[in-house]
């Protein structure tokens, strides 16, 4: 069933008097989620670092580029599927790792895992998850899952978490490099809203045998001490390129580095022997004033796209955005905030509606622009404003 068929489904349901569960308008989605969430949870998701300059820059970079549609090329049948690092995907879209999803819905990552499995998409589970590696794997069933590591300083805890992920069927390790500390985030600070305490984003360390072994009392008996041990374990110390060999030793599948923004770092990733990168500025949540992720993409894809898989995120909201990122050299994109807003609207069903909408929009936009598959896209498909 083509993804664009969601359009017909919605129109047909309309004949029976039924409307979509909530908006299909990507621009209205954030405002709609705002009406459902308190200010703490809403700004945790929507907020960015500092003045919000990079959150805005991410959108502006998409706006500056436009698709140039081609006619009479018979794009009535499209094939959106692709394979990334051995993972088959029905469309070049993954669900980005987002921490502490219980903040917006009690089912949190379990709902996301179920929605991803239903749609055949790959989810990337965050280390800051509010559910354990094993529970999310069970919810995802025979779906496709990758694991995102916030790299703990304690090697025993790191190895233990990696082996749990491996045993639970997570196929690819995504190592996030840009968040060894949370950035200056005025919205969270003004509300004294520390996300991973508010939403129990510590399920993974607290359930970890190696982490528990280092505590005087288990977290259930002494939560503050456990948190005080975990926070410095995954923040405060940056790692070096040389240390990546430790992860290669303890993870025998593909490794992807998330948060690459400079072409020289992309080349270092090649030298380090990893299999992929995510060109990302963390949705504008880390370095305020950082380059728009889409502006960083073409140079990086050109330099290293033949040597490793180049994935992309930050600012993707529509099908057209995905077309633009693919045309600039991304193999696939990660969807971030939009699916979290879907989760806020209705758990698994809310994620399903948002993701189906984005995929339908992608399918229709690609076809109407005259392309049958992502592989046909390149820079010729775009016009760019100076
Ligand atoms: C609420 C929230 C929590 C996030 N938590 C994580 C995380 O735990 N690990 C991670 O690698 N990235 C995390 N990210 C970043 C996303 O993976 C992704 O890079 C970003 O959302 C992309 O930007 P977009 O939301 O504009 O699409 C988070 C993003 C948001 C919005
Ligand atoms: O908020 C984030 O962007 C993020 O990456 C994170 C990190 C730790 C806990 C929760 C979210």
TrEMBL record:
Domain FMN hydroxy acid dehydrogenase: 18-386
InterPro entries, alphabetized: Aldolase_TIM (IPR013785), Alpha-hydoxy_acid_DH_FMN (IPR012133), FMN-dep_DH (IPR000262), FMN_HAD (IPR037396), FMN_hydac_DH_AS (IPR008259), LMO_FMN (IPR037350)
The protein's required cofactors: FMN
Keyword Cytoplasm carried by entry: no
Keyword annotations from UniProtKB, A to Z: Flavoprotein, FMN, Oxidoreductase
Annotated positions binding FMN: 97-99, 126, 148, 176, 258, 280, 313-317, 336-337
Residues noted as binding glyoxylate in the record, renumbered to the chain: 44, 150, 185, 282, 285
Active site positions, chain numbering: 282 (proton acceptor)
One Gene Ontology molecular-function label: oxidoreductase activity
Assigned protein family: Belongs to the FMN-dependent alpha-hydroxy acid dehydrogenase family.
Protein name, per record: Alpha-hydroxy-acid oxidizing protein
């Amino acid at each position: 069933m083509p993804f664009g068929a969601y359009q017909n489904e919605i129109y047909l349901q309309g004949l029976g008097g039924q409307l979509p569960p909530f908006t299909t308008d990507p621009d209205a989605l954030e405002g709609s989620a705002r009406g459902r969430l308190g200010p703490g949870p809403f700004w945790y998701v929507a907020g960015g670092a500092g003045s919000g300059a990079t959150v805005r820059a991410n959108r502006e970079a998409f706006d500056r580029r436009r698709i140039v549609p081609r006619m009479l090329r018979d794009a009535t049948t499209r094939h959106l599927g692709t394979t990334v690092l051995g993972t088959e995907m029905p469309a070049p879209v993954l669900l980005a790792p987002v921490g502490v999803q219980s903040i917006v819905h009690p089912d949190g990552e379990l709902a996301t895992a179920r929605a991803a499995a239903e749609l055949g998409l790959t989810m990337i589970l965050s280390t800051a998850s509010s559910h354990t590696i094993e529970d999310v794997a069970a919810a995802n069933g025979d779906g496709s899952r990758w694991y995102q590591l916030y790299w703990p300083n304690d090697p025993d805890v790191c190895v233990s978490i990696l082996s749990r992920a491996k045993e639970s069927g997570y196929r690819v390790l995504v190592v996030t490099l840009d968040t060894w500390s949370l950035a200056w985030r005025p919205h969270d600070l003004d509300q004294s809203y520390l996300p991973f305490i508010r939403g129990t984003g510590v399920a993974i360390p607290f359930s970890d045998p190696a982490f528990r072994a280092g505590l005087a009392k288990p977290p259930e008996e002494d939560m503050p001490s456990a948190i005080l041990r975990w926070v410095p374990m995954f923040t405060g110390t940056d790692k070096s390129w040389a240390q990546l060999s430790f992860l290669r030793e303890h993870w025998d599948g593909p490794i992807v580095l998330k948060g690459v923004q400079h072409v020289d770092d992309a080349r270092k990733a090649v030298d380090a022997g990893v299999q992929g990168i995510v060109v990302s500025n963390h949705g504008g949540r880390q370095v305020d004033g950082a380059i728009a992720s889409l502006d960083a993409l073409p140079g990086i894809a050109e330099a290293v796209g033949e040597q490793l898989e180049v994935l992309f995120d930050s600012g993707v909201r529509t099908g057209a955005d995905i077309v633009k990122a693919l045309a600039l050299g991304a193999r696939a994109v990660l969807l971030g905030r939009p699916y979290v807003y879907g989760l806020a609207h209705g758990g698994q069903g809310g994620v399903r509606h948002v993701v189906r909408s984005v995929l339908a929009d992608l399918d229709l936009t690609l076809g109407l622009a005259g392309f049958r598959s992502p592989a046909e896209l390149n820079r010729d498909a775009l016009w760019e404003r100076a």
